[in-house]
Amino acid sequence: MAAAPKILAFAGSTRTGSFNKKLIKIAAGGAKAAGADVTTIDLRDFPMPIYDGYLEEKSGIPENAKKLKKLFLENQGLLIASPEYNSSITGVLKNAIDWVSREETDDEPALACFKGKIAALVAASPGALGGLRGLYHVREILANITVLVLSSLVTVSRAHEAFDPDGNLKDSKKQQQVEKQGADLADALKKMTR
Q1: CATH number of domain containing 86
Q2: Each residue of 69-81: pLDDT tens digit?
């Protein structure tokens, strides 16, 4: 029997009460129900300076970036809930991607923690498009660094009204769509490892 696919799930936000932190729990639940081994993290637990090549040259890769990179390397899939900031990706998510992309040794392959990965994207936003414009940018960045991104993008609009007190979506069809995004990632990873 094949091992369960391993998925790293996180939101591109550090805000307490983030809509996207709630959303990633739902998507991760769908991946787990489909048989994946899911590790959900909070980027708040990995504080890092803004990426700066001079800082890297002078001090090396920060310890939290190394810890985060290790998690990326240990997982085959990435499940990301990304808020939309000014029609684009959040600074904390871009910074995390930039730091984990750095090579720790001269013989490490470029983009080692992204090669062969599959990602699924979701977003929640108070706006009418639910963060869709930001997801386009996340998808483009990941695709350019060798990640295969599932074509479907699931968004939740009017996020400030969308969740019940337990963190589930009030709209049961939307809840199922978000869960399915996680399940689809798990299924894609299973097919890749056959």
Answers
A1: 3.40.50.360
A2: 999 999 999 999 9
Domain count, the chain: 1
Domain that holds residue 181: 6-192
Task: Give yes or no for a contact between 188 and 118, defined as CB atoms under 8 angstroms apart.
Answer: yes
> Which residue, chain included where needed, has tokens 């787990």?
32
- Partnered with residue 80 across adjacent β-strands are 10, 121
pLDDT digit string, tens, across residues 90-113:
999 999 999 999 999 889 998 999
Nearest Cα to Cα of residue 26 among 118, 191, 163: 163
Q: Which long-range contacts (CB under 8 A, 24 or more apart) does 160-165 make?
A: 160/19, 160/126, 162/19, 162/124, 163/19, 163/22
Number of C-beta neighbours around residue 16 at 10 A: 8
pLDDT tens for each residue of 174-184: 999 999 999 99
Residue 144: partners with Cβ closer than 8 Å, 6 or more residues away = none
Q: Is the pLDDT of residue 1 over 60?
A: no
